[in-house]
Amino acid sequence: MIDKDKLNAGNIYAVSKPAVILPTYNEQDNIKIITKNILSLNDRINIIIVDDNSPDGTGLTADALSKEYPERIYVIHRLKKEGLGTAYIDGFRFCIENGFDCIITMDADLSHDFNSIPVFLNEMEHYDFVIGSRYINGIRILNWDFKRLLLSQFANYYVRKIGGLPFTDATGGFNCFKVDVIKSININYMSSVGYSFLIELKFKAYKNNFTIKEIPITFSQRNAGISKLSKKVFLEAMFMVLKLRLRLIR
Ligand SMILES: Nc1nc2c(ncn2[C@@H]2O[C@H](COP(=O)(O)OP(=O)(O)OP(=O)(O)O)[C@@H](O)[C@H]2O)c(=O)[nH]1
Ligand SMILES: [Mg+2]
Prior knowledge:
Elements: H1 4-8, E1 18-24, H2 31-39, E2 46-51, H3 58-68, E3 73-77, H4 84-97, E4 102-105, H5 117-123, E5 129-133, E6 141-142, H6 146-161, E7 175-178, H7 179-184, H8 197-207, E8 212-216, E9 219-220, H9 231-245
Parallel strand pairs: 1-2, 1-4, 2-3, 5-8, 6-9
Antiparallel strand pairs: 4-7, 5-7
Helix pairs in contact: 8-9
Bound molecules: guanosine-5'-triphosphate and magnesium ion.
Guanosine-5'-triphosphate (GTP) binds at residues 23-25, 27, 50-52, 81-84, 87, 107-109, 111, 173, 222, 227-229.
């Protein structure tokens, strides 16, 4: 049960300045909705949008939102599409430089339910890293075709068996962690630029002995914007996990 009153009373337990990082590439139809939903949760939650010069003008909308909420929404503009992983790295640097003590990674396409954010933040009292899992107690994914589900299941099985990570959902993008986790990892030397970045991050947090918990989340496939998952993305992840296991990446 989300104790929103308690959160709004300014008591976000172990963290005081949390930031949600939203990487965006062509999320014009979603960015206003998601930011307003997040801001409505709690006065202390901030948002960092990392936009890669989206052709649909997401960056301009993000700037307008930042003007409307100057102390709460920040925008990092990058010149071109450089991948989800490097977008997160730029977001992490911004968080470290600006004194945010807790980071939430989240897709901007409304696939992740903003109502889970207070649940993540409550868990920060006991854990350093909280993973949102679509696969605890069954499968909670809406609107995926069978092929996509099979691919995701295989990827997670592979990460468990080959990578040795004990999580049900190592590939998911909805996570929350203390900034100390990022400080313990050399983010200048992350091997993944794309989607496999999230696996690498979990792997390194696990190896650095942070306390980690998985909580159930629901994932709904995007209903606006363009899907960007490709074979290349999948293969990058498979090789990266193998290299992590063989300690070719540290
Ligand atoms: N800044 C930036 N954001 C990106 C990039 N690629 C993806 N994103 C964003 O990262 C988040 C996750 O990407 P999605 O395209 O939704 O990935 P997905 O959920 O695996 O696949 P689909 O929803 O089917 O496209 C979304 O908010 C995207 O807009 C990128 O190269 N740069
Ligand atoms: Mg998506």
